[in-house]
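Supplementary Note 3. Input sequence used for the single-chain structure prediction.
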Amino acid sequence: MAPPPITGRSGSLDRADVQGLVGSGYGRLPEAVFLGLQVDDGAAGRALLADLLPELTSMAGARGSRALNVAVSHPGLARLGVRQEALAGFSLEFAGGMATPTRSAFLGDVGEQAPATWAWGGPDTPRVDVLLLLYARSAAELTAHAEDVRHRYPADGVREVLELPTTSLSPRDHLGFADGISQPEVAGLHGRGERGIALGEFLLGYPNAYGRRARGPLLPATDDPGRVLPPAPRTGRRDEVDLGRNGSYLVVRTLAVDVAAFWDHVDRWAERTGLPAEQVAAKMVGRWPDGTSLTVSADHPLGDEPVDNDFRYHRDGDAAGLRCPVAAHVRRANPRDSLDPRPGSAASVRVNDRHRLIRRGRQYGPPPVSRDTAPGTEPDGERGLHFLCLNADLGRQFEFVQHTWLDNPAFAGLQDSPDPIAGHHPPGGHGVFPIPADPVRHRLLDLPHAVRVRGGGYFFLPGIRALHHIASGPASPGPAPEPSG
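The predicted structure, written as discrete structure tokens, is reproduced below.
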């Protein structure tokens, strides 16, 4: 299959060159599986990519009963033969990887959830160079899809080392709460004009919220004799091409969820506070199970009414968190207009928009257990979330949100209060969840360890043309660059 023609040079989005996952979580395809490959021979890996290219799903072709997208790690790019000039152009976070000691300390991946304990992505697990993301309309179709892909594996040089199955797509997570409600509105992503967050916050090659293009991988034009790649943007040099344009960084983290432990803590806190258990849980999450924000409706879910997601905490009179606590998960993950400068203002919203993520996660494991199930008696099998998100700046977006908003015990003036759901909870029973109330607030102690990191990695989701270039191999003979990890 020939690469799509180069279009959109004026800055408009070339949908045929963007992998479909950027524009859609494939909600019409409820079944998914993610396959991790180790590339031991670059030529074999490139041959596989070339064979898969006709099956790739772009934003321009995201219809049908199947979808396939491809992401590659930094070591994987090296093993596929990407030149050092381009490898050096990727972000430092991506080049270093998620599981280095520095990254682990920064992300709270320590102790019982340190990379050494991970089921994949850690120092003692097989290396994942290429991640294939497969989606399908039915379980039978997904099985056939996976078989078709596996039949394309070369006899030698590439092997599957990881399979991440998922459960059929559900509107609610394992804790029973509606999920995927608050996604960023991105300017130009779906042809809606220029309103929304800058496209360069999620795709390389476009201006971001600061009006600058994120650093991306460039190559000498001589490495692209077929003129597959677009010219480098505004470098002042006509002899470079852009390998990163229309690509995005993909964060993948496998998060195990202890549902029974979460509800056991909620029930005990409900007895101590006198609040209904569902309300305690909603205070921790920041929404009612049906997705209604506590800021919109503090006392009860709205049921059949459409979820109102067009709200702000300060503008709508909840600055103190009397309805939705400041420490609640969704308020920390997306503070909206709660940040300096001038909370409640457009300037506050602009600050928040510099740290947004496009989330594309899928759940895995047995069906959700009943709230009445005692801890340790739930059906066999780990359950949780394969968290996936897309962003153009790993440090300023994903890592900032995890470290500065979720893990931070002093978020927004709090004390000893990490995120009650997804934050790092040090051992020893530390951590407080304050529930503001008038006249007397509640302070819930001993936050539950309901979520544990079980694996993860940083990948690059290249543009379609970039994948064509990678599959074609180096422009001139010679050894591939030495992998960085």
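The first strand starts at residue 31 and ends at 39. Confidence is low (pLDDT under 50) at residues 477-481.
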